[in-house]
Write a structure and sequence with these properties.
By secondary structure, the chain is α/β, with parallel strands linked by helices. The chain has helices at about 1-30, 45-55, 55-60, 75-80, 95-100, 145-155, 170-180, 190-200, 225-230, 230-250, 255-265, 270-275, 285-290, 295-310, 325-330, and strands spanning about 35-40, 65-70, 85-90, 105-110, 115-120, 135-140, 165, 185, 200-205, 220-225, 280. A 6-stranded mixed sheet has the order 2-1-3-10-4-11, with helices on both faces. A 5-stranded mixed sheet has the order 7-6-8-5-9. Strand 6 (about 135-140), helix 6 and strand 7 form a beta-alpha-beta unit. The protein is globular and about 60 Å long. The model is unreliable at about 1-30 (pLDDT under 50).
């Protein structure tokens, strides 16, 4: 009897240890990671992240996501470099910092049709040439400055022939409204704010669509090289969640508008206009573009824009910062 009791206790102990090991391993497998994700308050900058949050795609990947709002890409990248942000959506302009090696591009979100140069009717501006001698606002380091430079350089206009002011989006809207500037180069959602506020007083004189032969303006999801190297599994899980959200967006555009409106507390009518500002990619679109080389062409064209506008002086090998091979090997083929 004593021998039986000893054998039973040994077996019970072994079983207990085995169960603990299984519980521990399972816990490790489904361990939830807290990550901070930067977004911008327009359809382009919000839609994929908000859909992934609302539809549970982050949760499916074991990610507890804190969404943090920013007004521009350079501010997001500064936060990432200070370890206050893990992933971020950026518009075209901030990609100059990716070319400089500060962040890696995981994949594109879409190709912009958003940037416009808008003048006040009372300023007598009807063309880009009319900007000479006028006070024009743009946000330096963003796609609004890039587009302004592209537009004037194409006509041989020197920047010194304009009085160019550096303002953020909300301040540009205010300055256009109160008449302290003559024109502005802006991107969504500020284009819509100006057009809606000024009505007939607002005169759109140029759109990035007019310059599609000169360069592409992709928006992208980015991460720092350091974070990617230290946390490849989290990067893969984040990428899968966002790409799944992009698929959902492509097939449910009207619902995507509603989700963005809720996230940003914006009128649905305004967000519905914003969805017209770009060609939106699905996850499948990104995979195909990475496999057939189209994405590399977009980012090369983008570099040409930066060179043309003298935002950067030297091009960089696309593969150094756009994670095409990484995504194919670690996300698309798994």
């Amino acid at each position: 009897m004593m021998k039986f009791r000893i054998v039973f206790l040994v077996l019970f102990a072994a079983l207990s240890i085995s169960c603990k090991e299984k519980t521990s391993n399972t816990a490790d497998e489904i361990k939830t990671e807290i990550i901070r994700v930067g977004y911008m308050p327009d359809f382009s900058g919000t839609s994929a992240a908000a859909i992934a949050q609302e539809k549970g795609y982050f949760q499916e990947e074991g990610l507890n996501v804190v969404l943090l709002k920013f007004l521009d890409g350079p501010s997001e990248i500064n936060a990432m470099l200070s370890n206050n942000l893990d992933f971020a959506y950026i518009g075209h302009g901030a990609h100059s910092l990716a070319i400089q090696g500060k962040v890696n591009v995981l994949f594109p979100n879409g190709l912009s049709k958003s940037e416009q140069i808008i003048a006040r009717k009372s300023s007598g501006i009807n063309t880009i040439l009319d900007l000479k001698g006028k006070t024009v606002a743009a946000q330096f380091g963003t796609s609004s400055e890039i587009f302004l430079n592209l537009a004037i350089n194409k006509l041989g206009i020197n920047k010194d022939e304009l009085n160019i002011l550096d303002m953020n989006g909300p301040n540009i809207v205010s300055a256009m409204t109160n008449g302290t500037i003559d024109a502005a180069s802006v991107q969504a959602p500020y284009t819509f704010s100006i057009l809606n506020t000024l009505g007939d007083e607002a005169v759109p004189i140029a759109s990035i669509i007019d310059y599609s032969d000169s360069g592409a303006f992709p928006s992208s999801w980015v991460v720092t090289p350091e974070y990617q190297n230290a946390n490849p599994d989290i990067v893969n899980r984040f990428s899968r969640a966002i790409l799944k959200a992009m698929d959902y967006r492509a097939n449910n555009m009207n619902e995507a508008v509603e989700i963005v409106a809720r996230q940003n507390n914006s009128p649905i009518e305004t967000v519905a206009l914003e969805k017209e500002t770009a060609l939106w990619f699905s996850g499948q679109n990104v995979k195909e573009a990475y496999l057939n080389g189209k994405a590399a062409e977009w980012y090369k064209s983008q570099q040409n824009v930066f060179i043309y506008t003298k935002t950067i002086t030297n091009t960089s090998d696309i593969s150094k910062y756009v994670q095409i091979k990484y995504m194919i090997d670690n996300v698309f083929n798994n």
